[in-house]
Hints:
alpha/beta, Rossmann fold, 13% strand
Amino acid sequence: MSCEPLIILSGKAGSGKTTIGRLLATSLNYEFVSMGNFSRNYARDHHGMDINQFQDYCKPHPEMDAHLDDWFVKDISARAAAGMGLVLDYRLGVHFFPGARSFFLEVSDAVAACRVAARKDETGKTIEARNQKMRHRLLASYGFDFTELAQYDLKVITDTLKETDVVETILASLKNPL
């Protein structure tokens, strides 16, 4: 279906990046890699923090963001260079991999809050705050605004769509060359 070695999903917390990413990767027989999952695990395993605490920690410690991003970008670059097909959940994806096909998953705050209600460290208020903190941190560290939609190949509003419909929309877009 696609000969793109790297497909990037971006969007706000609760937009469905992980769910859609896993389904899309399965559809394409690609590997799914999530910076969000990596960061959550790193925060828990190395600092004993949840993702919100870790984000607050990273603000005065931008070297932590740079360290994690450097490791992640090198790892993804090596995999892509080896010809691995990857679906990447990474808000900085279009910044570091500008030639990749990229999709922004949009979600309302209310729907995002419902989606993350099962997470023990997330609420509607923490989601909203995390999105704003992430946006400001990426602007300060990289001069990059992940919410600027013009840099993506396609925006998909996920509020009322089934996960399979979102995947089908992305797959249809991948059939069309840029």
